[in-house]
Specification:
Layout lengths: L2 E2 L2 E2 L5 H19 L4 H19 L7 H5 L2 H15 L7 H29 L4 H8 L1 H18 L3 H9 L2 H4 L21 H19 L8 H19 L2 H19 L1 H17 L1 H10 L10 H17 L23 E2 L5 E2 L9 H26 L9 H18 L5 H21 L6 H5 L1
Helix pairs in contact: 1-2, 1-7, 1-10, 2-5, 4-16, 5-18, 10-11, 10-12, 10-17, 10-18, 11-12, 12-13, 12-17, 13-16, 13-17, 14-15, 15-16, 16-17, 17-18
Length: 445
């Protein structure tokens, strides 16, 4: 037995095999049904806990990596304040249960990253590659899946939707693909989630390709994956996913020349987005972009939503209306939104389609301040990674900042799970880059 951080190495492989397999399955799920990622991440956390117990590793031994830097502490304070907002939220019980799921997915991703970083340093080279090649192999199988699904008229997706609907439902949405006339696979309305999840995986995938049996082909494979994802984003119609992909690529190239200034640019951009979230949300409506026929309907709809909710946030500027409360807010949009040939839209707001505005709206200035401090400091922690790894981390960070912006809701479990697993996968590959240095994952926590 080899002693490492108070734990012993084990030669019993079943749990190790399940761990590495789950990583591949989560990546595969993200590629076909990202709503199932939180459920699978929860299962990975349970298996990792069992593995740590088998090796004599105590859970509290990871706490110093979580509490040793200010960014993580402010992130914890932000989540604590979100839980505290249950006291004035519109549906306290719903808010508490939903935030508990989000906290489990977020903290679970961090814990698995810490545990895997420790474990990989105990394993031999052959067993290490079982983990670090899981992500590329998963996307090879995902590509084959979509090819076969397209050739068979989505019959594979329909089979899984009928036999294992939890794969598509995740924690939050009940999707009934089995009803006639409901599109599935690449034609699904939820294909934009697939594009977003794939974008979050790209930095880890591109880095992992560099350690495949053909390292000379690594950069070419990473570039090919980028081109494929551009096409996926275009087909999905998700402008947010495409913007995140492009932003990540631009910052990646910039970081190759100066990782320091790329990090600073990210920090400044993040502060502008969170501090100025309310006035920035009002600008498109003031410019009457909601009336422009040149812009897609989804953007024109969001212009109205942003303006309405920015105004609403001014009514509770300090504490906000409570986390997860906008879904139950009784007010209707300022004017009905015409959905193409359908009847005027009269539904309530489900979420602001702007995570930065949502922080101000639901948690007020206090929540925004904690969010700003946590994000700025955590972005700065990228500088503690190895030099070769930083461009990939910066690309993922840029994509993350875009994803929580104009696309979806801040608290959606599938989005938190996709972001969390994207960072988990990248930090797992970082072990390959910097084996001789202090664990990269621990530095970022």
């Amino acid at each position: 037995m080899v002693e490492h951080q108070g734990a012993r190495a084990t030669t019993w492989p079943p749990l190790e095999t399940i761990q590495s397999s789950l990583i591949g399955i989560i990546a595969f799920s993200a590629a076909i049904a990202p709503l199932g990622v939180p459920t699978l991440l929860a299962l990975l956390v349970v298996v990792t806990l069992a593995q740590d117990r088998a090796e004599g590793q105590r859970l509290h031994s990871y706490l110093p990596t979580l509490t040793s830097n200010a960014g993580s502490l402010y992130a914890i304070m932000f989540m604590f304040f979100a839980f505290l907002s249950c006291a004035w939220a519109l549906r306290p019980g719903y808010t508490f249960v939903s935030l508990s799921q989000n906290a489990f997915v977020g903290l679970g991703s961090w814990y698995v990253a810490m545990a895997l970083d420790r474990r990989l340093r105990l394993l031999g080279r052959g067993r290490q590659t079982r983990f670090t090649r899981a992500l590329p192999l998963a996307f090879v199988f995902a590509a084959l899946y979509f090819l076969l699904d397209a050739l068979t008229g989505d019959s594979i997706t329909l089979f899984f939707a009928r036999k294992a609907p939890w794969i598509f439902d995740g924690f939050e949405n009940v999707i009934r693909y089995t009803r006639s006339g409901v599109p599935v696979g690449l034609a699904s309305d939820y294909f934009n989630r697939i594009a977003a999840a794939l974008v979050m995986m790209l930095p880890g995938l591109a880095a992992a390709f560099l350690f495949w049996p053909w390292p000379r082909w690594g950069r070419w494979l990473g570039s090919a994956a980028f081109v494929v994802l551009v096409l996926v984003c275009e087909k999905s119609g998700s402008a947010t996913a495409l913007l995140a992909l492009v932003a990540g690529a631009v910052l990646f190239i910039f970081a190759l020349y100066s990782a320091h200034w790329a990090r600073r640019l990210l920090q400044v951009g993040f502060l502008i987005l969170i501090v100025g979230a309310v006035p920035l949300a009002m600008v498109p409506r003031a410019l009457k972009l909601d009336e422009s026929a040149l812009l897609p309907f989804s953007f024109r709809e969001r212009v109205i939503i942003w303006d309405d909710l920015a105004s609403l946030s001014l009514n509770s500027p300090i504490l906000g209306i409570g986390a997860k409360s906008i879904k139950f807010w009784p007010a209707l949009p300022s004017h009905k939104v015409v959905r193409k040939s359908e009847k005027p839209e009269t539904r309530k707001y489900w979420h602001p389609h702007n995570g930065y505005l949502q922080v101000w709206l639901e948690l007020g200035a206090i929540g925004a301040a904690l969010f700003a401090l946590a994000g700025t400091l955590l972005l700065g922690r990228i500088g503690h990674l190895g030099t070769r790894m930083q461009p990939y981390a910066i690309a993922l960070a840029a994509g993350t900042l875009v994803m929580i912006g104009p696309g979806w809701g801040l608290w959606q479990p599938w989005l938190i799970g996709s972001i969390g697993f994207g960072w988990l996968a990248l930090l797992m590959v970082s072990f390959e880059f910097e084996q001789s240095q202090q664990p990269d994952a621990a530095k970022l926590a």
